[in-house]
Amino acid sequence: MKTRYDLIPPMVVREGNRTRLFIDFEAVEVPVTGKGEGSKQKTVTKYDGINIDLIGAVDYDCLVDAIISEQYPSEKEFSIIMNERKAQKDPDNEKAAGYLADADTLEIYREHAKEMAKKILTAIASL
């Protein structure tokens, strides 16, 4: 789930049998309304990131799947894969380039999820 925080939380927090993951944070400038007329518009830095909660044992495959599923629910992932196949069979289709671009974006995110899973497992080992 995409979440906004005042500070970047630790990547991994263990709460009993729950493992909370906080990943992919980026700074966002958020306007703050001033009090009174003529007050200048100010901004504060907040951090948008992804929060994933897992219950039970956590391993590499579980982490990769959870990270990918957060951005690409299974039906969306399946649709992208099927559209990619369609584009490969009929490259002259007017939507083929878009389908292939979507598949490339998914593959880039899958590689990112694998790297994040390795970092998370390292973080868990140090808890």
Name a few traits of the molecule.
127 residues; alpha+beta; 4-stranded antiparallel sheet; 3 helices; 4 strands
Detailed description of the structure:
α1 packs across α3 and α2 packs across α3. The longest helix has 30 residues. A four-stranded antiparallel β-sheet has the order 1-4-3-2. It has 127 residues and is α+β, with helices and mostly antiparallel strands. It has one domain.
Report the uncertain regions: none
Order of SSEs, N→C? EEEEHHH
End-to-end distance: 23 Å
Q: What is the mean pLDDT?
A: 94
Give the strand order of the largest sheet, numbering strands 1, 2, ... along the chain.
1-4-3-2
Main beta sheet = 4 strands, antiparallel
Tally of domains: 1
Number of helices: 3
**Strand portion, in percent?**
25-35%
The radius of gyration over CA amounts to 20 Å
Helicity level, as a percent range?
40-55%
- What's the assembly state of these chains? single chain
Counting DSSP E segments of at least 2 residues, the number of strands comes to 4
Q: Based on helices, strands and strand pairing, what is the structural class?
A: alpha+beta
- Overall morphology: flat
Annotate the secondary structure layout.
Layout: E1 2-5, E2 12-15, E3 18-32, E4 42-55, H1 60-71, H2 74-89, H3 96-125
Antiparallel strand pairs: 1-4, 2-3, 3-4
Helix pairs in contact: 1-3, 2-3
